[in-house]
Amino acid sequence: MGDWVGVVVQPNEYVLRDAEPDEVQAMDAYGVEVQVRAGGSEDALHREADVLFGKLVEARPEVPMLLVQNLESLVKAHLPGAGTHTFDPPITPDAEDAASWRSWIST
Fold first, then answer.
1. Sign (positive/negative) of CA torsion 98, 25, 22, 91?
2. Whose CB among 4, 74, 77, 80 lies 3.0–4.6 Å from 93's, allowing a Cys bridge?
3. Cα 68 vs. chain centroid, distance in angstroms?
4. pLDDT tens figures, 61-74
5. Angle at the Cα of 35 (from 107 to 25), degrees rounded to 5?
6. Helices (H), ranges, the chain
7. pTM score > 0.70 for this model?
8. Are 38 and 3 in contact (CB under 8 A)?
């Protein structure tokens, strides 16, 4: 299969409205999900997603955004008024890493 990139925009269906403290995820407060899909390598997919994230932040800096890979790794967070933060190394978007991401997410 050749290289290609596609984008799916849909409601965030991963939200747990009444999550228990150990079920909380960074994406719970975000109503829209933008999936980036690609036909090339996973590295190429991650590069394309990072480029798209940067362009979305540039175009709409007033909108909070997260860059999450495979629902496992929280890579970046943009919060209006605070800027964009890169988690290096990436952390999970799960409750176990909430202390690291809580100040960078929309509530």
1. negative
2. 74
3. 3
4. 999 999 999 999 99
5. 30
6. 42-59, 98-101
7. yes
8. yes
